Amino acid sequence: MPHSIAFIGLGNMGLPMALNLVAAGHTVTAFDLSPDATAGAAARGLAIASSAVAAARGAQIVITMLPAGRHVVSVWTDLVPASGEGTLFIDCSTIDVDSARAAHAIAQAQGLVSLDAPVSGGTVGASEATLTFMCGGTTEGFAAAEPILAAMGRRIVHCGAGGAGQAAKICNNMILGISMIGVCEAFVLAERLGLSHQALFDVASTASGQCWSLTSYCPVPGPVPAAPSNRDYRPGFAAGLMLKDLTLAQDAARSSGAQTPLGKHAQALYAAMDAEGQGGVDFSGIIERLRAGRAG
Ligand code: NAD
């Protein structure tokens, strides 16, 4: 059934997601603080409102896709009181668990149902409507949101109560950051030992070293032709975004008392890469730092 949807945040992810909602037959009114973003979105045929509050007025569903927790809490603080009874709030940004829970509390105080629904799949998944959504919220919220999210993604998982989607996202990406560094270290060691990339790949990809960082995103060119290593480490998934997610994981580890020594080390290695101006390089490009002995 078509819905009227307000979409706030038209960046690299938000714009293609909003366009997929339109393609699925929904009525979308959008807003972004950046004039460049709204101009680009208008040129693609998206209806643009004069403010976030104007976009949300009369909408049945409000979706936010913003950089960080403080943006989400601030936008929800403005929009929730301006929204009608029964409006469903969905945040798809990657943010800290505490801010996600604060956003849920803002909606709940007004009697509105809400969902945290961060995504994986990157800009390609956003364009091709193949994202994975990891959702936190009530069963009622999940049931209401699922058909809407289905227009933007392929896999939609209910992970638990409010904040559980963000928790799943940062735990998954902590595995990814650590496993990528592990795979890179193995290739660097293999090079020193005179073992070819292909030989290591052929063994490890079907043995106990098998993981996504190796078989889908191999950090050396050759074995996996679609991986960013074959195009000079153009992202893909930029190191700066991996640093953001590993930092969120470290914040959550600190506040929950979890021991994550490898997550902490991975965060430090990506922070060093970012500090040297390589935040825009694909995160698998960390192999070049390891090879050069600049791992920190
Ligand atoms: P982006 O920086 O391209 O877009 C964010 C947009 O939000 C910008 O256009 C900005 O102007 C707008 N914005 C900021 N504050 C605003 C406000 N108060 N009101 C309205 N608009 C506002 O970021 P992105 O790559 O689209 O990522 C969005 C979110 O998705 C982030 O939380 C990111 O971590 C997450 N994410 C990104 C990727 C990816 O590959 N890019 C993958 C998974 C998750």
TrEMBL record:
Residues 163-288 form the 3-hydroxyisobutyrate dehydrogenase-like NAD-binding domain. GO terms for molecular function: 3-hydroxyisobutyrate dehydrogenase activity; NAD binding; NADP binding. InterPro entries: 3-OH-isobutyrate_DH-rel_CS (IPR002204), 6-PGluconate_DH-like_C_sf (IPR008927), 6PGD_dom2 (IPR013328), 6PGDH_NADP-bd (IPR006115), HIBADH (IPR011548), HIBADH-like_NADP-bd (IPR029154), HIBADH-related (IPR015815), NAD(P)-bd_dom_sf (IPR036291). PROSITE patterns: 3_HYDROXYISOBUT_DH. Its EC number is 1.1.1.31. Signal peptide: none annotated. Keywords: Branched-chain amino acid catabolism, NAD, Oxidoreductase. Pathway: Amino-acid degradation; L-valine degradation. Residues 4-160 form the 6-phosphogluconate dehydrogenase NADP-binding domain. It holds the Pfam family NAD_binding_11. It catalyses: 3-hydroxy-2-methylpropanoate + NAD(+) = 2-methyl-3-oxopropanoate + NADH + H(+). It comes from the Bacteria. One of its GO terms (biological process) is L-valine catabolic process. The active site is at K169. PANTHER family: 3-HYDROXYISOBUTYRATE DEHYDROGENASE, MITOCHONDRIAL, 3-HYDROXYISOBUTYRATE DEHYDROGENASE-RELATED. Belongs to the HIBADH-related family. This is 3-hydroxyisobutyrate dehydrogenase.
